[in-house]
Specification:
The chain has 456 residues and is of the alpha+beta class. It is built from 15 helices and 23 strands. It folds into three domains: 267 residues, BirA Bifunctional Protein, domain 2 (2-Layer Sandwich), CATH 3.30.930.10; 63 residues, Herpes Virus-1 (2-Layer Sandwich); 91 residues, Rossmann fold, CATH 3.40.50.800. The mean pLDDT is 96. The structure holds glycyl-adenosine-5'-phosphate.
Length: 456
C-alpha cells in the first residue's frame, strides 16, 4: 500500500523509535531524540559498521578522537576559510535559503555547486524563482554562511578561546595518523575507522533525520602508498555496496551510484562517488566515497611543522600516503533503513497491518514471548527469562493475541512465541514469523537452537 514520510514519522514516534527533540518545550527546530527502540537500532547499526569496516577487515583499526580539537586543525583543513554555504534572505518575509538548493529544487538537472555567487544570483532572477514561504522574488545578495558551530573553551570568551564543534570526524583521524601507525606498527596500506558526533549549523536542515545540525558519522580513512597499483577506490566502493546489500539488506533497486563530474568535486578530492538512496522526497546522498589524495596529511604537515610521512621499511623512503574515504551519516542511514522497512500490508478485505521489515541484525527485539492467557504467565516468563540470556527478548501479556502480534509486527520483531494451554501437555510452543505470518510448533527444549539457527 502507498506510504508517506508523515505516516512513517508518526509511526516511529508512537512506537518509541524517534521523538521530536525537546518536545515538552515546544521542540528545537530539526532536532530528534532516539527512543528506547530507536536507540537499539542505532547501536546495532553502528556495531554492524564497526564490525565490518574495523574489526573484520584486517587492514583497519579504530579510533575515538575528541569533538573539540585545536582550532588550528580547522584552519589547516580549510574548514575555517571554506566550509560555507551560499545564504540569501527573502527581503519580504526574511526567511533564509541556501541559494544552491533552491536552484537545484527548481531544476533537478542543475548542479549549483559548480556556479559562482553571481551566476546563482543571476539564475534566480532570470528564472523568477520565488520564495517558498511568501511567493515573493526579491532576495538579498548571496553571502557566505560559516557552517561550523563556534563556542569558547575556558573562562575567557574572546577570540583567543574560540573553539569549534567538529563538522566531520575525519580530521581527528588525520591528526592521529602517525600515533595510530606507530603505536600499532601498521604498514601501508591500512585504514582508521571512527564513529562519532559531528555538528553543522545547516541553513536548511530538514526532511526529518536526513539533514540535521547534530548527527553522527561513520568514517574510514584508508591510507596507501600513491605508487600502489591496487584500485583502492573501487575496493572500498565495492565494500560499501556489499555492506548495503548483504549486511543491512538495502535492496539494489533502492540505491544507485553517482560519480561526481570534475566541476562538482570538493577541493580536496580527485574522484568521488555518491551512493544515493531513493528517499521519500527523491534521490539523495547517503554515502560518499572520496579520493582525498594527500590533501589532509600535507595540509597538517605544513601547518603543524610535524613530519606526517610514513617511513617505508623496505625502501627506507618517506611517503605521504594517499587516502580513500568512505563516509556515511548514521541517521541518514537509519532513515533509509526505516523507509525501506516501513510497510502497510493488506491482509484480507477488512484487515491490514503495519509491519517494520527491519533486517534481523538491526531489530530492537529478536524475539517476543507471550502467554495465550494470563494464567500461563508464570510458564511464559520462565521461557522469556531463559531466552533473555542469549537473545534480545521482550515479554507481552496485555491485550488479545491478535493485537499483540500486530504490536510486534509494528516494531519489527521477527519471531513471536506463544505459550498456550497445550504447551503444558506437549511441552511445545507456537513460533510465528513476522514476514510470512506462518506459525509452527516447536518443542520447548528446541526453541533456543531454532533461534540460534535463524540468527546465524
Ligand atoms: N569527511 C567527509 C564528509 O564529511 P560529507 O559529504 O560532508 O563528507 C559525509 O558528509 C556523510 O555524512 C554524508 O554522505 C551524509 O550521510 C552525512 N551527513 C553530512 N551532513 C549531514 C547532516 N547535516 N545531517 C545528517 N547527515 C549528514
Amino acid at each position: 500500500m502507498p506510504k508517506t514520510m508523515e505516516e512513517m514519522i508518526a509511526h516511529l514516534k508512537s512506537q518509541g523509535f524517534v521523538f521530536q527533540g525537546s518536545e515538552i518545550y515546544g521542540g528545537l527546530a530539526n532536532s530528534w531524540d532516539y527512543g528506547p527502540l530507536g536507540a537499539e537500532v542505532k547501536n546495532k547499526l553502528k556495531a554492524q559498521w564497526w564490525n565490518y569496516f574495523v574489526k573484520k577487515n584486517a587492514l583497519n583499526v579504530g579510533l575515538d578522537s575528541s569533538i573539540i580539537l585545536n582550532p588550528k586543525v580547522w584552519k589547516a583543513s580549510g574548514h575555517i576559510d571554506g566550509f560555507n554555504d551560499p545564504l540569501i534572505d527573502c527581503k519580504k518575509c526574511n526567511s533564509r535559503w541556501r541559494a544552491d538548493k533552491i536552484i537545484e529544487e527548481f531544476n533537478q538537472e542543475i548542479n549549483a555547486g559548480t556556479m559562482s555567487n553571481q551566476e546563482m544570483e543571476d539564475f534566480i532572477k532570470i528564472n523568477n524563482i520565488s520564495c517558498a514561504k511568501c511567493g515573493a522574488c526579491d532576495y538579498t545578495a548571496i553571502r557566505q554562511f560559516a557552517l561550523m558551530f563556534k563556542t569558547n573553551q575556558g573562562v575567557l570568551e574572546d577570540e583567543s578561546s574560540t573553539v569549534y564543534l567538529r563538522p566531520e570526524t575525519a580530521q581527528g583521524i588525520f591528526i592521529n595518523f602517525k600515533n595510530a601507525q606507530r603505536s600499532l606498527r601498521k604498514k601501508l596500506p591500512f585504514g582508521i575507522g571512527q564513529i562519532g558526533k559531528s555538528f553543522r549549523n545547516e541553513i536548511t536542515p530538514g526532511n526529518f533525520i536526513f539533514r540535521t545540525r547534530e548527527f553522527e558519522q561513520m568514517e574510514l580513512e584508508f591510507f596507501f602508498n600513491p605508487s600502489d597499483e591496487t584500485d583502492w577506490f573501487n575496493y572500498w566502493l565495492t565494500n560499501v555496496e556489499n555492506f548495503l546489500n548483504n549486511v543491512i539488506e538495502i535492496k539494489s533497486e533502492n540505491y544507485r551510484v553517482r560519480n561526481h563530474d570534475k566541476e562538482e568535486l570538493a577541493h580536496y578530492s580527485s574522484q568521488t562517488s555518491d551512493i544515493e538512496f531513493k528517499f521519500p522526497f527523491g534521490w539523495g546522498e547517503l554515502w560518499g566515497v572520496a579520493h582525498r589524495g594527500d590533501f589532509d596529511l600535507n595540509a597538517h604537515q605544513t601547518a603543524s611543522g610535524q613530519d606526517m610521512t610514513y617511513l617505508d621499511p623496505e625502501t627506507n623512503s618517506k611517503i605521504l600516503p594517499n587516502v580513500i574515504e568512505p563516509s556515511v551519516g548514521v541517521e541518514r542511514m537509519m532513515l533509509a533503513i526505516f523507509w525501506q522497512a516501513f510497510e502497510e500490508e493488506k491482509i484480507d478485505e477488512n484487515n491490514s497491518r503495519i509491519v517494520m521489515r527491519l533486517p534481523k541484525n538491526l531489530v530492537p527485539y529478536q524475539v517476543a514471548v507471550m502467554p495465550l492467557q494470563k494464567q500461563l504467565s508464570e510458564q511464559a516468563k520462565e521461557l522469556f527469562n531463559n531466552l533473555l540470556e542469549d537473545f534480545d527478548a521482550t515479554y507481552d501479556e496485555t491485550g488479545n493475541v491478535g493485537k499483540r502480534y500486530r504490536r510486534q509486527d509494528a516494531i519489527g520483531t521477527p519471531f513471536v512465541i506463544t505459550y498456550d494451554f497445550d504447551s503444558l501437555e506437549d511441552k511445545s510452543v507456537t513460533i510465528r514469523d513476522r514476514d510470512t505470518m506462518a506459525q509452527e510448533r516447536i518443542k520447548l527444549n528446541e526453541v533456543k537452537q531454532y533461534l540460534f539457527d535463524k540468527y546465524n
